[in-house]
Amino acid sequence: MPLQPLISRNDISLITSLAHKKYRDRHRLFVVEGAKMVAEAQRSSFAIRKIYDALTPAEMKKISRFKTPSGVMALVEQPAYRLDPPALLHDLVLALDGVQDPGNLGSIIRVADWFGIGRLVCSLDTADCYNPKVVQATMGAIFRVQVHYTALPGFLREAARSVPVYGATLDGDSIYSQALPQQAVVVLGSEGRGISPDVSAQLTARLHIPSYPPLRSGSESLNVAASAAIACAEFRRRAT
Q1: Taking the mean position of all CA atoms in its chain, how far away is CA 22?
Q2: For the chain, what is the HEC assignment?
Q3: How many CA atoms lie within 13 A of 130 on its CB side?
Q4: What pTM value is reported for the model?
């Protein structure tokens, strides 16, 4: 009798469909690949629907998005986070306006985790945090940082009643010369257009990360994930 496959056609169909946001939303699931990432999921509060860790290379190749599959994969349930602005604003919060590159979003989630920022608030047109490329780029931080999606202008308008709302812009004041409070929202714009007009209207101050030396001709702007890391480091440095 031939050996039965360890993964069913239905499993394969489900896993491959989760490469697309509409199916991730429909099933409230996302895919985690690699032994380290699956171990991170197991240590977290996330519910794991199923772990695949005994598949043949041929079977794993059918479902993996890696060129060299690791041999371990899990289906993880998406958590249901509640966006509660007053609860968020007791610390530093990052807000993302239209950040669409999955690698950048994953890196920003990882930056937030490194600097102890537990919540990220994203515009509705920001990349999906459960996109496989985003999940992988977080290196496990997706299990420790809550990512919320909302109409960003309204959230910032409410936030500005309690804390400063800073925007990382090319025309702002140097981040190194400003007084930076521990409680604030820092807005980072998209890779191409920066902060949108509707979001820009809600800012209470603008911050710029100057190049060195000043006025040197060089890159037009920083990568958004690099900007996030520098801004978080400076805010946290002032808090110590």
Answers
A1: 18
A2: CCCCCCCCHHHHHHHHHCCCHHHHHHHCEEEEECHHHHHHHHHCCCCEEEEECCCCHHHHHHHCCCCCCCCCEEEEECCCCCCCHHHHCCCEEEEEECCCCHHHHHHHHHHHHHCCCCEEEECCCCCCCCCHHHHHHHCCHHHCCEEEECCHHHHHHHHCCCCCEEEEEEEEEEHHHCCCCCCEEEEEEECCCECCHHHHCCCCEEEECCCCCCCCCCCCCCCHHHHHHHHHHHHHHHHC
A3: 25
A4: 0.92
- Decide: 189 and 221 in contact? Cβ < 8 Å: no
| Cα distances (Å, whole numbers) of residue 26 to 21, 50, 141, 164, 178 | 8, 17, 24, 37, 45
Q: What are the structural domains, with CATH classification, of the chain?
A: 9-77 (3.30.1330.30), 85-239 (3.40.1280.10)
Q: What is the pLDDT along the chain (240 residues), one digit of tens a residue?
A: 344 457 889 999 999 999 999 999 999 999 999 999 999 999 999 999 999 988 888 888 889 888 878 889 999 999 999 998 887 888 999 999 999 999 999 999 999 999 999 999 999 999 999 999 999 999 999 999 999 999 999 999 999 999 999 999 988 999 999 999 999 999 999 988 899 999 999 999 999 999 887 666 666 778 999 999 999 999 999 876
